[in-house]
Amino acid sequence: DCELIQPNASAYLKPSDTKAVIDNLDAIAARLSEHGIELLTEQLAVGGWSGGSASTLRIAGASYELADGRVFTIRDERPLAFIAASPSGDNRSGFTEDSFDGVERPVLTITAEGDAKPDAPVEPRVRPHYHMPATGDKYQMYINSDATAHGTLNLSPEDSVMHNKIQATTAAAFLDAKVRGSRRAQRYLDSHIIDELLLMDSS
Predict the structure, then answer these.
(1) Can you list the positions of beta strands (E) in 24-172?
(2) Number of Cβ within a 10 Å radius of residue 24
(3) pTM of the model
(4) How many angstroms separate the CA atoms of 6 and 60, rounded?
(5) Hey, which bits of 101-190 come out as E strands?
């Protein structure tokens, strides 16, 4: 089994790392409180970019297919919401078209026209959003700009700084709405403000 999993070891182990951090949040909170920092251990969200988005989606409930066809899940019920920036599609990272059926909680996926690499076109990055169940508040932010490259979706300083600000604002509104229950943030998500900002930045 170890030999079988080895080619996908990173994808297999990363979600376990996330679960280990969640398992130890109380201990982490105790240490932080010694320095006057409060950690709200029950208001949890998980986010990731590129390969990290695959781990995020697996924690959210997406299944993963091994080389021999076996399927496993490593879902964790504790996070309330998830952000997957530049997500892996149904042809990478062990994901299939049916992998996302178990993703029932709120998810924000973020990708862009320029979010492509020589071995990874942008279209598969759009598909996870449409393969998830419609229940549980699913949002997708798609930036229709070639200038927004794969690295930009990690909020790096390259390319469009304005796009970075819009991504960060949208992610913050999503977390405030789905983790903290902010009605104001939910109204922002439901409005056309984000569309207008993206249109202004692309013009």
Answers:
(1) 45-49, 64-65, 71-72, 81-85, 107-112, 138-143
(2) 11
(3) 0.86
(4) 23
(5) 107-112, 138-143
Rounded Cα distance, 98 and 146, in Å: 29
Contact criterion met (CB below 8 Å) for 199 and 188? no
Q: Token match 């994901």: residue?
A: 95
Q: End-to-end distance of the chain based on CA atoms, in angstroms? A: 53
CA atoms of 76 and 130, how far apart (whole Å): 22
Q: Do the Cβ atoms of 104 and 135 come closer than 8 Å?
A: yes
Please check whether residue 89 is in contact with residue 124, taking contact to mean a CB–CB distance below 8 angstroms: yes
Scan for tokens 């076109």, then name that residue: 121
Enter the tokens of residue 129. Answer: 């959003």
Q: What is the pLDDT of residues 109-142, one digit of tens each?
A: 999 888 877 667 788 888 889 899 988 799 998 8
